[in-house]
Design brief:
about 30% helix; disordered C terminus; alpha+beta; 6 helices; globular
């Protein structure tokens, strides 16, 4: 009986130590640069992109997106088993504009991570989900890549959820709401 308890305790500590491994850095800069080049058009456009085909250098169940100026408490509340290995990197990412951190997570532990520049932008990847870290599950990886050409010839790219309305739809909704008179204005 003692031997069985001892084996259980040992296997528990081994499984915990396996989950506490340091995550591996994976560089996606060139991949994202090539996507920007492929979808770079002089006119505005929206394209469907499967994130799984882009972030394919490591295994993951979900991706957590660390955004500029994101409160560290949001990240700490994720309770990832090995987040402490990356806290210095995460503090850098949240303190610098136009950098994003990507945490590739499997079963509650970070398996790998990446730090990428701001084009394309991930700030809208999961919509406005409130005071949390945006997380994209592997089962739902189809997103819109929106190309917005700048006046000086530079391109801006945003990843957005597929259920987001297009900019034309948003402008149409805004124009319709502005054309309605408020009820108070109809009083004599």
């Amino acid at each position: 009986m003692r031997c069985l308890i001892l084996l259980s305790v040992i296997s528990f500590f081994i499984s915990c130590s396996e989950n506490r491994e340091s995550p591996v850095f994976v560089d996606y800069t060139k991949t994202l640069d090539s996507i920007s080049a492929i979808y770079s058009k002089p006119q505005k456009g929206e394209y469907l992109v499967d994130i799984k085909s882009i972030f394919n250098k490591s295994d993951w169940d979900s991706i957590a997106f660390i955004l500029p100026y994101q409160p560290l408490s949001y990240i700490e509340n994720m309770n990832l088993c090995n987040i402490d290995f990356l806290m210095d990197t995460i503090k850098y990412v949240v303190g610098v504009e136009w950098n994003y951190g990507l945490l590739f997570v499997t079963r509650g532990c970070i398996t790998s991570y990446s730090v990428v520049g701001g084009n394309p932008s991930f700030s809208e990847i999961c919509g406005h989900s409130g005071p949390t870290v945006p997380i994209l599950k592997r089962s739902n990886t189809l997103v819109k890549l929106v190309n917005i050409p700048g006046a000086n010839g530079e391109q801006s790219f945003y990843f957005m959820p597929t259920n987001y309305p297009s900019e034309e739809e948003l402008n149409d909704l805004k124009n319709r709401s502005e054309s309605h008179q408020p009820i108070d204005s109809l009083r004599p």
